[in-house]
Specification:
Strand order of the largest sheet: 1-10-11-12
Structural class: alpha+beta
Strand content: 15-25%
Helix content: 25-40%
Number of strands: 15
Oligomer: single chain
Order of helices and strands: EHEEEEHEEEHEHEEHEEHHEEHHH
Length: about 400
């Protein structure tokens, strides 16, 4: 491994056009789970694949669904309920602008029932267990760079924008708009992050006349609050609204799509990515659930002190329940044999789609909160959100691998 280098990751805020779409898509997933539970439908039978496009005062939602009767009428969905959820999401993000307003935007709903060909491959029938909702490869990663066991450049890029969003929502910074991006370049020395060499924050401002210096005066205190002491130095180069103006933001300024920020959602480029997006998908889709499982396993390996870095790969075929492969890479930092670890991972967690969903308790409305500021490195919630961030396998792994 290289010990001395520069590495960069970016984040985008909840008001970024792609994140607006991710939020709407995940709110629909939550709606289906919440309504299924309320109406007595087995939530394990819910199927969601909701994709969203957003542009100037227009939102288009398409995809395939299966859910409770109040949301499905044969092959058709309850468009009024879907539209209501989309408007509420945009209002919560904070868009009340001429070119994108939660009340004025046109919402087109093109959702329909799930294909029976896909359903028969995924559903459990007779002696056949529930299969994966698609083929693909998924990666999980953890490292010791932060207390959350996440790569530092991405973790702190997220925290900058999350803190600014808190200030905006509280009313402390009324001049800031919902759309923003951040980017951090960190210098590593002897394998550890020690300094920010380049820092980018591009933040929408509602006052058209604000200059880049004006925006810097607003955002700089929050950046300094979030970053570890000593990381900002006299050599750090700041790029705040480097184009000079960022008044028109969100889907009015740039078209958004669900699933277009997969590196922001995961590890900021510090680890491989299988290519599948998360938002808008129920957890029978292994793009989502198996990526959560892989992170869960990798995090527990590192939390157990078995390695300083861990990458896990899982692979699946549509309609097949067992993973096709399990791969572990400890990047030369491991205290255990990687082939033995691969076998133990299969023992400590059922990696079939049904097993993942039950172990992590994913059949519930916990997904809208994942749509911005990363799916990983978050604190587990009391209601089951971010369950894949728990480290409850630490002792099991230690016992299995160090005996």
């Amino acid at each position: 491994m290289r010990k001395d280098y520069l590495f960069t990751s970016e984040s985008v805020s909840e008001g970024h056009p792609d994140k607006v779409c991710d939020r709407i898509s995940d709110e629909i997933v939550d709606l289906y789970y919440r309504t299924a539970i309320e109406e007595g439908m087995d939530p394990a039978l819910v199927r969601c694949a909701a994709e969203c496009l957003a542009t100037t005062n227009k939102v288009v939602i398409a995809g395939e669904m299966r859910g409770p009767e109040s949301l499905m009428h044969g092959d058709e969905v309850n468009r009024d309920r879907i539209e209501e959820v989309a408007r509420a999401a945009v209002r919560d993000i904070g868009y009340e602008q001429e070119g994108f307003h939660w009340r004025k935007m046109d919402v087109e709903v093109l959702l329909h029932a799930q294909s029976p060909d896909i359903a028969q491959g995924v559903d459990a029938t007779g002696n056949k267990d529930e299969g994966a909702g698609d083929q693909g490869i998924m990666f999980g990663y953890a490292c010791t760079e932060t207390p959350e066991l996440m790569p530092a450049p991405l973790h702190y890029a997220h925290r900058i924008l999350h803190r600014l969003a808190q200030a905006r929502h509280s009313g402390a910074e009324p001049k800031l708009g919902p759309d923003a991006k951040s980017q951090l370049t960190l210098r590593y020395a002897d394998g550890r992050p020690v300094e920010v060499t380049q820092l980018v924050v591009s933040h929408q401002h509602l006052d058209e006349d604000l200059s880049s210096d004006d925006v810097r005066a607003i955002v700089e205190p929050y950046v300094r609050e979030v970053l570890p002491e000593g990381w900002l130095t006299e050599n750090t180069v700041w790029h705040i609204n480097p184009t000079g103006k960022f008044h028109i933001g969100g889907p009015d300024g740039d078209c958004g799509l669900t699933g277009r920020k997969i590196i922001v959602d995961t590890y900021g480029g510090a680890a491989p990515h299988g290519g599948g997006a998360f938002s808008g998908k129920d957890p029978t889709k292994v793009d989502r659930s198996a990526a959560y499982a892989a992170r869960y396993l990798a995090k527990n390996v590192v939390a157990a002190g078995l390695a300083e870095r861990c990458t896990i790969q899982l692979s699946y075929a549509i309609g097949v329940s067992e993973p096709l492969s399990v791969y572990a890479d400890l990047h030369g930092t491991g205290q255990v044999d990687e082939r033995r670890l691969e076998n133990v991972l299969r023992e400590v967690m059922d990696l079939r789609p049904r097993g993942i969903r039950e172990h992590l308790q994913l059949n519930r409305p916990i997904f809208a909160r994942t749509s911005a500021y990363g799916h990983f490195g978050r604190q587990p919630d009391a209601d089951g959100g971010f369950s894949w961030e728990k480290t409850d396998l630490v002792e099991t792994l230690k016992s299995a691998l160090t005996a």
